[in-house]
Each structure stands twice: as structure tokens, then as C-alpha cells.
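Notebook entry, cofactor series.
This is the third protein in the set we're modelling with a bound small molecule. For this one the ligand is zinc ion. I'm keeping the input format identical across the series so the outputs can be compared line by line later. Sequence and SMILES below, as received.
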Amino acid sequence: MTPWTHSLAAGLDRALQPPAVRRAGRAARELAGLLLPVDCAVCGLRDGAVCPECAGQLAGALLRPFRAERDAAALPLVSAGPDAGPVPLAVVAAGRYDGSLARALLAFKDHGRTPVGRHLRPAVHRALAAVPALVTERPPGGPGVAPALLVPVPGSAAGFRRRGYDPVAELLTGPLPPGWELAPWLLRPARRRAGPGAGLGRGSSSASHAGTAATLRRRRSTGRFRATDPARFPGSRSVVLFDDVMTTGSTLAAAWHALDRVGRRPVAAVVLAAVTAPGARPSGGLNSP
Ligand SMILES: [Zn+2]
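Returned structure with ligand:
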């Protein structure tokens, strides 16, 4: 794509969802939430977007960001240094996906309850602020983990049409903690391409690796997202991914591979909620108090 068509495409993207329209939509949804009586998104019983009791539970569930990559089997493996073996990509989560946080996120993501975001955004900020302390690995030869460009994992166009908003973008509205710069233009959903080579870019040595599980996984994952040409964003700042929920880590892996292919390998990821190992969940699952 030429620089001209690049900027045309970027302009069209912005025109389809200009910030003023998004702000107006958010304001209308939040006003509707104030005017219409709503049941708490977490307990479904008491009044309010999130009732005071559930707000307290939610705040407690989001109090301490933690390293969450251990149970996510699909994360990319990265070098932990010259003397260490490969390790999964470092992921900082604001909370565990269960209990009140799971219910709040479900309402926020899939039931249009965007006012719930007010209770989730402070936790995103806390997780971002905790990254320098929690991610102490330094990528060989690269800049430190923070300050960094924060790249939201893009949602699909179909998801945006269905919801009328992008939950990940909603979580990142407002100023970020010092040192963080939002860089949503670095990554976008890829258009679907048919055929066995879908997702492979120029220079991929498909012949030498054809048939290996790693290559198949790479084809699938790189095919989901497309990273912007690095010439459009010169600079050496670290790149950190952001997503709302991590389960196996496959979505983060897809985003990581897309950026890695253009030479901007993310050094870590931050998520609002991480699904942790089944043994670590309360026995009541999502319906537990
Ligand atoms: Zn409640």
C-alpha cells in the first residue's frame, strides 16, 4: 500500500468512528443509565449500574494486579535472557475472571452496560502503573518495559456493529498513567484471506516449515491482525498489548505475532481480567457470591 492509500485508509477508519460520535454515544448511554431505573449489573437485584455492595466487591477483586501468564497455554514464548530458556510473554492482569468481575465484564461487554466501565477503568490504570514493578525482565537489546506504547487488541467490525461500541476502547478512555501512550493505529483486524497460505507474509519460509504445528499456529494467529507499516511510526518505545479478557492467550498471541512480523515485538501485555486455572477458581464458578 502506498503512503497515500495508507493515510486514506486511516482517514476512512477515523471517519467511520470519529471521537466526537463515540463521545456522544457514550454520553447518551450513560444518561440513559441515569434516567432509567436499572438493576445492578453484578447482582441484578439492587438499583444502580453497580450497587454499592457490588462496587465494593468489584473493587476488592481488582485491588492487586498480578502476573497472569502461567495458565495461558497459547501465549507466545519469548527469550528470558541469554542463560534462560523461553518463557511465556509477561502478562499483567488487574483481576481474576470470576465472581463479581466476571459478571460485571459480561454486562459491560455483551449487554451494553457501558456505565459499568466507570468501576473497571481505575483497575486498568492500576495494572498499567504496576507494569514496571511486575515486569522486571528486560528484552535483550531493547528499551525497558515502560514507558511504552499501549496497543489495544482490536475488536472485529462485526462485534462493533452488534454492540455499538468497542469494550477495549471504552476501558482505555481518558488519560492514561504517566509514561503510557495509546497507539491504537498500530494494529487492526486483518481482512480474511482464503487459501493455505492465508496470514503468511512476504519472506515467510513456508516450504522449510510446512506442516509443523508451530507454522500452522503462526498462520492462524498472524492472519487475524494486521500491523501498520513501521515506517509510519518511527521510534524505539516499547510496545505493550492491552485486552479486556485473557483465557488461553491465543488472541494476545495473534496480536503479538502481527506486530513481531513488522519488527515491533511487544514486551508484555496487560489485561483487565485473566481466566486462571480451574483449581484456582471458587467452586461456585461465575454464580458464586
Ligand atoms: Zn449489586
